[in-house]
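Thread: Newbie trying to understand structure tokens

Hi all, I'm a second-year student working on a class project, and my supervisor (Dr. K.) asked me to get a predicted structure for one chain before our next meeting. I've only ever worked with sequences, so writing a 3D structure as a token string is new to me. If someone could post the tokens and maybe explain what I'm looking at, I'd be very grateful. Here's the chain:
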Amino acid sequence: MARGLVERVLLASPRGYCAGVERAVETVERALDRFGAPVYVRKQIVHNVHVVRELENRGAIFVDDEGDVPAGSRVVFSAHGVAPGVWASAAQRRLTTIDATCPLVAKVHAQARHYAASGYTIVLIGHAGHEEVVGTMGEAPEATVLVESVADVEALELPAGTKLAYITQTTLSVDETADIVASLRRRFPDVHAPAKEDICYATSNRQWAVKKLLERIDLLLVIGSANSSNSNRLVEVARAAGVDAYLIEDETAIEEAWLIGRSVVGLTSGASAPERLVTRVCDWFRARGVRCFEQLATVREDVAFKLPVEVRRPAATNAA
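---
Reply by user tm_fold:
Sure, no problem. This is what the structure looks like when written as tokens:
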């Protein structure tokens, strides 16, 4: 890239880690400090390859299934939550469990149990195969129907008189979910809604922050891993508004051809991307002659979640 091609980088705020991700990552770090390596983790603790790699270097072992954890060992469940069957399987294998499920995901699980116990058919709005959706559907699989789009809602065939309620994955597009909910309400006017929307504050805030950037930028870069739902939604928000956007793991993924003819580049990061990756991307631009970096703040986040009780206690010390 020729020096001076990009004149300015505009950073979205808020961006990066949310309270649930901070809690999950710190849970694994504290478990390693307290109990020593190895600490097993079911699935990726959060959807970011850099975070996973760093925890692996400290002694965390990531597995796809609790059946891959040696019997009697300690395992951390990821921020995305697990189905009841996973808890049962872990108990059968005598695993010591530490639950790092985001409390906002746990709330959706509780809603699913409540609706199912009350005789509702549950419409879960989410992405098939995502770990959060798999875990939530596991709470009441016989009572839950997954929809991913307005077209899925239009295709729903339910018996007359069905008691219907909906819940959502926490990391969806706010705008697309609103369209799906509107379609649900049109087709099923008596559908029961959650008392408070399920899309989490961090997902909503990061999408809103991107929207505030769009009228001032020529291109958006979103730092996040390919399997990060909320990061992909940020790319979609920009593209839906006609602004080119790319998802990047880190600065090594930037293609200089993207920057040709761009004067102002927007930069944000998904809720599972650490801030150090933002610093690295900014350094990449500095090395190419960019000197102007501006932060556009929207809302201030001050949410914090308590760590699981198993890692709140101080690490054990050897007796003298």
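A couple of things are worth pointing out once you decode it. Residues 6 and 263 are 5 Å apart (CA to CA). The domain at 19-102 is CATH 3.40.50.11270 (Rossmann fold). Feel free to ask follow-ups in this thread.
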